[in-house]
């Protein structure tokens, strides 16, 4: 078995301590002691504590988003075209599989993700959003292909809702059947995306009818 590098040991120690204690309480001294390295090694590889935190997230999110994009390409390559459910599944399933798997890494990273949301670290949120914005755009574009004529801004906002539901589901420790849970969440999200378009069309029709009635009454 290959020995972990100094960089990997630092990342493993930081991830565990950040997940257990939170970003601010966990000190670089604790991280270096757990990793068996000196402080200079942290500064050499990462530069700062904030950069180390981002690197911890990047290590997991890079792999997760690569899996998502690979499944998305498979969905888009289907001869009869991608279905909305296939696109959503490419986004949802890899995340649930990672967080619900037997690997302790997934559970630990899920703890860290929940702490990041609870701590409201605006710098971290902004950095992650900026770094992975291309992934969200790719999925928003793919969803738009399956729902032609929809407002792109509305679709991106609704994808944010899906992300929220996914994050909550990932954090629910009692859920075990990953495939079934992913399918349920995909059906829920797809129904919302399709239904919101129907309601918007109905609202537009009602507004137009009301406008016509007003004009007819006043003429």
Give me the secondary-structure topology.
Blueprint: H1 6-21, H2 28-35, H3 39-45, H4 49-76, H5 84-100, H6 104-119, H7 122-131, H8 133-146, H9 152-171, H10 178-218
Helix pairs in contact: 1-2, 1-4, 1-6, 4-5, 4-8, 5-8, 5-9, 5-10, 8-9, 9-10
InterPro entries: DNA-bd_HTH_TetR-type_CS (IPR023772), Homeodomain-like_sf (IPR009057), HTH-type_TetR-like_transc_reg (IPR050109), HTH_TetR (IPR001647), PsrA_TetR_C (IPR041586), Tet_transcr_reg_TetR-rel_C_sf (IPR036271)
Region (Disordered): 199-219
Pfam families: TetR_C_30, TetR_N
Helical amount? over 70%
The CATH top-level class label of the domain at 51-195: Mainly Alpha
Main beta sheet: none
SS content category: mainly alpha
Shape field: elongated
How far do the termini sit from each other? 85 Å
* CATH arch. level architecture of the domain at 51-195: Orthogonal Bundle
Describe this structure in words.
This protein is mainly alpha-helical. The chain has a domain of 145 residues: Tetracycline Repressor, domain 2, CATH 1.10.357.10. It is built from ten helices and no strands. α1 crosses α6 and α8 crosses α9. The longest helix is centred in the last third of the chain and has 41 residues. Keywords: DNA-binding. This is TetR/AcrR family transcriptional regulator. Pfam families: TetR_C_30, TetR_N. One of its GO terms (molecular function) is transcription cis-regulatory region binding.
